[in-house]
Structures are given as C-alpha cells and as structure tokens.
Specification:
Pfam families: PHD, SET. The chain is of the alpha/beta class. It has six helices and 15 strands. It has helices spanning about 75-80, 90-100, 105-120, 140-155, 190-205, 295, and strands at about 45-50, 55-60, 160, 190, 215-220, 220-225, 235-240, 245, 260, 270-275, 280, 285, 300-310, 310-320, 330. The strands form six sheets. The protein has a four-stranded mixed β-sheet with strand order 4-13-14-7, with helices on one face. A three-stranded antiparallel β-sheet has the order 8-10-9, with no helix packed on it. The protein has a two-stranded antiparallel ribbon with strand order 1-2.
C-alpha cells in the first residue's frame, strides 16, 4: 500500500477465490462453461457457476462485482431476484438500541470539548509532528440518525452484528495473544496524544455522535461509504474491527474482508481481524483499483496498524482532505500484494 511515510507499512489480507468450478490446469477456461454477461469462456479461474441453473458468470462481470467465491451455495441473479436492501427504520429508539448508544446529558459538553481541543491544536508550532484528528460529527441530530440508519441497513443486509471494537470469541484467539511485542515489523507506536484522540472518537460513537459518513448501495460496487461533510487530512475515520483469530486458522477461509492485525515473527502467532460476524462501517469502505493510475488517484484513506498500549489496532485515516459526497477508498494490498483489485471500479 502506498503511504505517506516509509515507516508506515500496512498489511491487508484478502483471500483469492477458491477453485470450485471446472477449469483446466492453466485456468484458461473450459469448452462447456461461459459467462452469461460477456459470453466468454476465458478466465476460467474467475468463472462461477450457479448451484441451481449451472449458468456461469465471471466474478468481475457480476453486479455488484464479487471478489471471491461466496461461502456455501451461490445462486445467480436470475435465480435469486436480487433486490435493493431493505432500509433500516429511521426511528430513534430502534437506532439507539441497534448501536447500543448510551443516553447522556454530556453530549453537548463533549462537543464543546472537541471544539476547544481543535482550537488548542491550531496554535501548535508547524515544526511539531502532525497529530491525528478526531472526526467532527454532523451537528444535525436528524442527519446523524440517517447516517446511522444507513450503516444499520448495510449491516443487516450482510448479516453482521454491530461492534466498534475488537472481539475475542471462544475457539478463536485470546486477547492475551494480541501482543504488539510479537510484531515482525510494519507497525507504528501510537503516541499518547493520538491515543486520547482515538478514545475521544470511541466515546463520541458510544453517545451516538457518529462519523460524518453515509453508507450507500451502488449497483456495481455494492455497499460503499461516502463523506457526508468535509473531512480534513489525518482525521480518524474509524477503527477496523471484528473477531480476532489466528491466521493459521483462516488460511483456507474464503472470506473477502480479513485484515492483518499482527504480523508476528513466529507465523503461528500472526493474527487477523474477521469482520464477517461483527463489524462497523470499516467493512464497507471499498478498495481502489491499484492496477491503474486513475484508480490509485481515488485513494483518500490509508490503513495503518498501530501499537496502542501494547495491543495491535488497525485504523483507517484520511490521507488527504475529503470533500462532502466523495466516496472513501483505500488500498487493500499491503506488501503481500495478494488481493486482486484489477477489476475494481
């Protein structure tokens, strides 16, 4: 992943599509299978067959594009009658319950503290190292409800429970396994002031003061995230969260959203974040097509792994100013370069 400084090294683990279709050894296709969209039988390694009608579709010809073979059975658009996702009710009590928002009278006081913090930071001398910024929630409470409802819609449609922190489940990695001291290389230590900023973002989210982001459904890209107000460079967008597991347990997992958490010197201790069961808005931030110059220009978010008080964490951070209405994109590939993005928009 291209980053601003050489000390920033990011790992993004994604899995390639398993070969659960008929193809020759070279992946050049087969005579009796072709794509219903483009009519070609080429790219056999990316040709997916419907489990009901046996019709074939290239992963990249589907809308939205698929980047890996789904778990279990898969049915083509004709057999599933895919519809727009059902919108989450724009009802405050339902949204408060869904996101487990803490009702507090401290909300306005918290906003005031954010503004004071911003003014204080603006007085810092320019030679100091640039610090991470807390996001600025939208002032209009009704608009914030709409933003949270858009995220709830995406989570419900993907069968995902909301979580805003790393989770440790029975049968997976213990929290004690998340030890930044085991890191092989590629992780930054988050300074104390930036830890305070991260904690401030967490507290705001707990009170329903969400990041100024809207999740929208695109017929080509699927769920995607766009800025709902201006976001300044170096603003914390969100933390990448989900269930923490050992990489060795996920080597054959065909999930397309795993993120490297700990790249350990001992490979058996390496950890990944699996957001398929529990996650937040990070799951819906899309990747760039880093095979094309135009695709690389779209990147406006960077993914960075940090040592936070001895634990590994992954943050998505604005790497330039982001305009209102602009969609968020980051590079899925770290120095593994194993995630196929050549068909991304």
């Amino acid at each position: 992943m291209a980053v601003a400084k050489s000390t920033t090294m990011v790992l993004r683990r994604r899995t390639r599509a398993p070969k659960r279709y008929s193809e020759d050894e070279d992946g050049l296709g087969c005579e009796d299978a072709y794509c219903e969209r483009c009519g070609s039988g080429d790219f056999g390694s990316k040709l997916l067959l419907c489990d009901k009608c046996d019709k074939g579709y290239h992963l990249f010809c589907l809308r939205p594009i698929l980047v890996s073979v789904p778990k279990g059975s898969w049915f083509c658009p004709s057999c599933t009658n895919i519809k727009q996702p059902q919108l989450f009710p724009l009802v405050q009590t339902k949204i408060v319950d869904f996101f487990r928002i803490r009702r507090s009278s401290e909300s306005m006081e918290n906003q005031s503290n954010i503004k004071k913090r911003k003014r204080a930071c603006s007085l810092a001398v320019s030679k100091r190292k640039r610090k991470l910024l807390a996001y600025n929630p939208t002032e209009d409470p009704q608009r914030r409800l709409e933003q949270m409802a858009s995220l709830a819609t995406a989570l419900k449609a993907s069968g995902t429970e909301y979580s805003d922190g790393l989770t440790y489940r029975p049968g997976m990695a213990l929290r004690s396994a998340n030890c930044a001291a085991l890191e092989k290389g590629g992780m930054q230590i988050l300074p104390k002031e930036d830890i305070e900023t991260l904690n401030l973002c967490k507290k705001m989210m707990e009170k329903g003061e969400c990041p100024p982001l809207m999740v929208v459904f695109d017929p080509v890209e699927g769920f995607t995230v766009q800025a709902d107000r201006y976001i300044k460079d170096l603003t914390i967008i969100t933390e990448y969260v989900g269930d923490v597991d050992y990489l060795k347990n996920r080597e054959n997992d065909d999930g397309d959203s795993m993120m490297t958490l700990l790249h350990a010197s001992n490979p058996s201790k390496s950890l990944v974040i699996c957001p398929d069961k529990r996650s937040n808005i990070a799951r819906f931030v899309n990747g760039i097509n880093n095979f094309s110059p135009d695709g690389r220009k779209k990147q406006n978010v960077k993914c960075v792994r940090y040592d936070v008080n001895g634990e590994c964490r992954v943050l998505l951070i604005a790497n330039r100013d982001i305009r209102k209405g602009e969609r968020l994109y980051y590079d899925y590939n770290g120095y593994e370069h194993e995630y196929p993005t050549e068909h991304f928009v």
